[in-house]
Amino acid sequence: MSRETILAKVKQATQGIAEKADYPAYEVSALHSQPRLEGADLWDIFSRNFRAVNGKTMRSLAEVVTFLQSTQQTCGYCDPLLWDIVGQPLSDAGIKVETEYDRSQYDRYLFGITRATGAIAESGSVILDDDLTSDRLAALSPWTHIAVLVEASIHRTIPEAIAALGDAPNIIWATGPSKTADVEGILIEGVHGPGEQIALCLG
Length: 203
Fold this sequence. Notes:
By secondary structure, the protein is α/β, with parallel strands linked by helices. The chain has one domain: NagB/RpiA/CoA transferase-like (Rossmann fold). Helices cover 26% and strands 23% of the residues. The protein is built from six helices and twelve strands. It has helices spanning 3-13, 42-52, 61-70, 83-92, 136-140, 158-163; strands at residues 56-58, 75-78, 96-98, 111-115, 118-120, 125-129, 144-149, 154-155, 171-174, 179-181, 187-189, 196-201. The strands form three sheets. The protein has a six-stranded parallel sheet, sandwiched between helices. Strands 8-5-6-9 form a four-stranded mixed sheet. It has a two-stranded antiparallel sheet with strand order 10-11. A hairpin with a 5-residue loop joins strand 10 (179-181) and strand 11. It is globular, with a radius of gyration of 18 Å. 32% of the residues are buried.
């Protein structure tokens, strides 16, 4: 069955749903993880929690260049709207950066750079949605994903982030690199998605 046929069947089955159901009532303050929210600066809180799940935070392109060069990641994708501020400087540093993602050659891209809708300080998550992610596969299939965000888009808590979900058809919260564990409890990263998740905060 083709992708188009499957999506057509899903659309047909959900036509009668006029609007989303209301969220259940709950006491918001009871849901916060107070130890994870210690501090006043949202970037500092986010960075601490993001690093706790093996994510990497960066504030400059120089850090990105150093990381990519030191790990020999010499070819990758960059959202065309980020070319001037991210792609061109990386290209000037000798790293091959493309603005068109060829899905037939996905294994050629060692890194992908896309815009993040925001981040969640409490959980250390970056938010990716289809409204801003230029190519979802470019964010999920390369070994390294670099999510570019601005500090003003960081939500303090998970409930705040939920309230700001909007109408995007698909939203991903990436809390560090992809992880899985076997029955012996051995944690493996990078199996179902990026093995390196970087949050690059500019401005």
